[in-house]
Amino acid sequence: MKRSRSPIDVRALEAFVAVCETGSMTAAAKRLQVSQSAVSQSIAALEREQGADLVDRDSRPPRPNLAGRALLELASPLLQRAHTVSGRIKDASLAGTPPVRLGCVDSFAATVGPEIIRAMSGSTRQIEMWSGLTPAHSRQVHDGEVDVVVCTQTVVNDNRIVELPLLSEAFLAVMSRRWLDGRAPKDSHWRQLAAELPLIRYTARSVIGQQIERLARHLGINGPRRYEFDATDPMLSLVSANLGFAISTPLCLWQARHYLNEIAVFPLPTGRLSRRDFFILHRQGEWVEFVENISSLTGRVLDQLICPALTRSLPQLPADALLPKPTN
C-alpha cells in the first residue's frame, strides 16, 4: 500500500515561512525565539513529511525552490486558519465574549493581517479572519455575516455601515532587474518597458485586475491579454524571468517578497486612477474600539516593518508609494 504524505506540521510551516521571509536560519530562529538547529530540524522534517526538498540550500541567502514557492503561496491561509482554530479552542470557555469576524482582501490578510493577529494574541478577544475578494466582503458586512471588513472598493449603499479610510498605495510598473542591465537612464522608463514587453495581468474578475486595466488603458498600454493570474506570486515568477512586466502595488509585492531581489519598479504617472485605497467597514455603533485598534496597528506595521523593508529592497520605490491613514 502506498504511504500517504503526512499532514503539514504548523510549527514546521512557521519555521519555513520565517526562513523565506528573513533570508536566514539565524534570523528565523530569532523571530520565532527558538534555536537555529530547531529551525533547521523543523524544515528538514517538513521536507521528509512532504517527500520533496523545499529550500535551495546552495543559494545565499537560502531561497525556496519550485516546490517551496508553491508551499509558500499556500502558507499564509494555512497558518491563519491554524491560528483561528487555536484561538477558538483557547477562548471557548469565555462565556459572553463573542468573536469578532474580520474579513480582509487577500493582500491585506497576508501582509498586515499576521502582524495584527500577533499584536492582539494576548487579548481575550477572539478574532476570526477571513480573506477573499472585496465585493464578497462588502456584502457580508451588510448582511451581518462578518463584523468588520478591510476592503479596497466599497459597494454598499447603506447608512448603517460606517466607512473609514485605512491606507493608500500607488500602482507601480514592475519588471525584472535583468531588463535594466546595461540600459542608459533615458531607456529606463515605464513607457520603454511597455513598448518592449507584454503586460502580465491580474485576472479581470478581481477588483485589482479591473483597477489596473482601467489604469493601463488610460496610460495607452493596450497589449493582448496573454497572461492573467489570480495571485501576485505566479505573476512575479514570469516577471522575474523577464517574460513580461506587471502593474502591481507595494502590499502585493510584499506578499510575494521572496521575489524582491529579482525585480525593480518604476513609478507611474500620478492621477485619479494611479492609487488603490483601503477602507474599514463596520456597522454603526459596533466594534468601534476594535476598528480603532486595527487602524492604529496598521499604521505601525506599515511605518515600522513593511515600508522600511520595501525601501531597502526597492530603492526606486516612491516615498508616497504606501501611506497609512493620516492621523489627526
Automatic annotation (TrEMBL):
This is LysR family transcriptional regulator. It comes from the Bacteria.
